[in-house]
Design a protein that fits this description.
about 60 residues; mainly alpha; 2 helices
């Protein structure tokens, strides 16, 4: 069960980015439409989520040392 949660956390963000990129490319009418506030916010949230394990690893290391 633990492994499946870790796999979901590791696989879900890149999959979401790929799906979002495909959807954006399908709806693209001009090059200026590629960047929107929605896509920037989604990427920022995914970047923060991707950095959470690193932050928790440092805190756990301090706790056990």
């Amino acid at each position: 069960m633990y492994l499946s949660r870790l796999l979901f956390v590791g696989v879900a963000p890149p999959s979401f980015v790929a799906i979002q990129a495909g959807t954006t490319l399908q709806q693209l009418t001009s090059s200026g439409d590629a960047l929107s506030w929605q896509s920037i916010c989604i990427l920022a949230v995914l970047a923060i989520i991707a950095l959470l394990p690193v932050a928790f690893r440092a805190k756990l290391k301090q706790k056990f040392d």
